[in-house]
Amino acid sequence: MPNDEHLNQRMRLALEAHIGISEMRMMGGTCFFLNGNMLCGARRDKDGFGRFMFRVGKAKETEALSNPFANPIVHGKRKLSGFVVVDEADCDPAALGDWLSLCLAHAASLPPKS
Question: Which InterPro entries has this protein been placed in (predicted)?
């Protein structure tokens, strides 16, 4: 998952008003956290398309996947529950804010990690 600084900066700007946000390079991309709990990630795939990964939680996964721009994340044959992926082109600033609201609500429901 190649790192993409443009996508990372979009995510940073969308999250800048929130306290407790951190980020970590993982698998060549960047993941963002709230109080140690993963929120989302940004990457540019080998096909050249930028994508955002959102951790919406299992309870909101069906709702999230009802959005025509959201897709499940599948690694090999295993679906990653509670996560969706959205292409950069389908995620304008308003949509990014909506996705992050779901992620922030889920992460806020979890105990902080150190």
Answer: TfoX_N
